[in-house]
UniProtKB/TrEMBL annotation:
Entry protein name: DNA-3-methyladenine glycosylase I
Pfam assignment, any one: Adenine_glyco
Upper lineage: Bacteria, Bacillati, Actinomycetota, Actinomycetes, Micrococcales
InterPro entries: Adenine_glyco, DNA-3mA_glycosylase, DNA_glycosylase
Record keyword Zinc present: yes
Annotated positions binding Zn(2+): 194
Gene3D superfamilies on file: Hypothetical protein, domain 2
MF annotations from Gene Ontology: DNA-3-methyladenine glycosylase activity; metal ion binding
Record key words, sorted: Metal-binding, Zinc
Length: 208
């Protein structure tokens, strides 16, 4: 009987799927063309501009309890409804705007999330006096990043996302729990949770 050494042991199977274009992607980005394009061009790309980061935080909050595909399909509607996520303009929204948004079928009509977006816009504007949203969020970049072989290896929260959540709440943000902030950190490149054999692994330039 031949002894199997650790070096000879088979590697765990990957969740990545090779597409018709020969590129490997996780299952969630392998079927729907919209999600595939999002994965190939946006997800995990560093976001270092206030306007874009505020949009990402807002959409991640709306995604809570829903699928990302729903949010992505409605993104044009969200952008139209929320003044293209300009923090200054959204911060000035009043009760008439809340009523308008809750009547807008092109977005997710959730009163708490609508109000949270306005609250977070005001917090974003206020944070400019303390270095701004971008530097604030990126200051929670951890010393290391996950290296998942399969989707089961990808965590849903971390010490860094919990710390970011706590810090954002302290400066007035809402709907920014540790799981939501972990998803944000994945989406904007603060951490790299692309599967190891995905064609996008390491593409952000943040992690080797």
């Amino acid at each position: 009987m031949t002894e199997i050494t650790p070096a000879d042991a088979p590697l765990p199977a990957s969740d990545a799927i090779q597409g018709p274009d020969g590129l490997a992607r996780p299952r969630w980005a392998s079927v729907d063309p919209m999600l595939r394009d999002y994965y190939d061009t946006e997800w995990g790309v560093p976001v270092r501009e206030e306007h874009a980061l505020f949009e990402r935080i807002s959409l991640e909050a709306f995604q809570s309890g829903l699928s990302w595909a729903i949010i992505l399909r409605k993104r044009p509607g969200f952008r139209a409804a929320f003044a293209d996520f300009d923090p200054d303009r959204v911060a000035a929204f009043d009760e008439n705007d809340v009523a308008r948004l809750l009547d807008d079928e092109k977005i997710v009509r959730n009163r708490l999330k609508v109000r949270a977006t306005i609250t977070n816009a005001r917090a974003t504007v206020a944070l400019r006096e303390h270095g701004g949203l971008v530097d604030f969020v990126w200051s929670f970049q951890p010393d290391d990043t996950p290296r998942p072989k399969t989707q089961a290896d990808v965590p849903t929260s971390s010490a860094a996302s919990a710390a970011l959540s706590k810090a954002l709440k302290k400066v007035g943000f809402v709907f920014v729990g540790p799981t939501t902030m972990f998803a944000l950190m994945e989406a904007i490149g603060i951490i790299d949770t692309h599967l190891l054999d995905s064609h996008r692994r390491g593409s952000s330039g943040v992690w080797g």
